[in-house]
UniProtKB/TrEMBL annotation:
Name recorded for this polypeptide: Cytochrome c oxidase subunit IV bacterial aa3 type domain-containing protein
Ranges that cross the membrane: 20-45
Positions of the Cytochrome c oxidase subunit IV bacterial aa3 type domain: 6-44
Domain of life: Bacteria
Keyword Membrane attached: yes
Any Pfam family hit: COX4_pro_2
SUPFAM superfamilies membership: Bacterial aa3 type cytochrome c oxidase subunit IV (SSF81469)
Keyword Secreted found: no
Keywords: Membrane, Transmembrane, Transmembrane helix
Taxonomy of the source species: Bacteria, Pseudomonadati, Pseudomonadota, Alphaproteobacteria, Rhodobacterales
Length: 46
């Protein structure tokens, strides 16, 4: 069998954290734009 050098909690995850933060920011922005479009259509559509 292969040697297992994995030790929990020692991996550098700063890039993963940055990626997740960017994904969440983009998701929130898209949700806000979608809500604004729905509100616009609800107010001005006939």
């Amino acid at each position: 069998m292969a040697d297992n050098d994995y030790k929990r909690g020692e991996m550098d995850i700063t890039e993963k954290e940055k990626t997740f933060a960017g994904f969440m920011k983009m998701s929130v922005n898209i949700a806000i734009v979608a809500i604004l479009i729905v509100l616009f259509l609800a107010i001005f559509a006939r």
